[in-house]
Amino acid sequence: MISFFSLRMVPAAVCAASLFAGSAFAADVSGTWSATVDLGSRHGTPTFVLKQAGDALSGTYSGALGDSDLTGSVKQSVVDFSFTAMGATVKYDGKLDASGNTINGTVDYGGQASGTFTASRK
């Protein structure tokens, strides 16, 4: 026999399960990443060390522009971060693939140059 109380709890239980299921699929991009950047006539191979805490992202960039601290966010498989180098804001916008080991996206060097990047987890 099903009681009124147990019927009222079903929607709450389904909602709670949905919330936990959604967080189970959140990406964790913490670690060291080797990237290739294609700006058309110029190419680069920076390294990123990323640290994720919830949706917040911090870490470092190391490459042709020197070393810089970066900040950003991770929302499901969307990864965005930026840093300042030589007076310009450099912004990376990417998407983590299903394996969780590759990020593909676009990069903008403060309006001076733009292109694409691929980063692989070391």
Please explain how this structure is put together.
This protein has 122 residues and is α+β, with helices and mostly antiparallel strands. It has a single domain, classed as Quinohemoprotein amine dehydrogenase alpha subunit, domain 2 (Lipocalin, Beta Barrel). The chain is built from one helix and nine strands. It has an eight-stranded antiparallel β-barrel with strand order 1-3-4-5-6-7-8-9. The radius of gyration is 19 Å and the shape is globular. The termini are far apart. Mean pLDDT is 86; it is low at 9-24.
**Average pLDDT number:** 86
**N→C terminal distance:** 56 Å
Characterize the main sheet. 8 strands, antiparallel, barrel
What is the annotated CATH architecture?
A: Beta Barrel
Q: From the helix content, strand content and strand pairing, which structural class follows?
A: alpha+beta
Q: In percent terms, what proportion of residues is strand?
A: over 45%
CATH top level class name: Mainly Beta
Structurally, the number of domains stands at: 1
What's the quick description here?
This protein is an alpha+beta fold. The chain contains one helix and nine strands.
Please outline the helices and strands.
Layout: H1 4-24, E1 31-38, E2 43-44, E3 47-53, E4 56-63, E5 66-75, E6 78-85, E7 88-96, E8 102-109, E9 114-121
Antiparallel strand pairs: 1-2, 1-3, 1-9, 3-4, 4-5, 5-6, 6-7, 7-8, 8-9
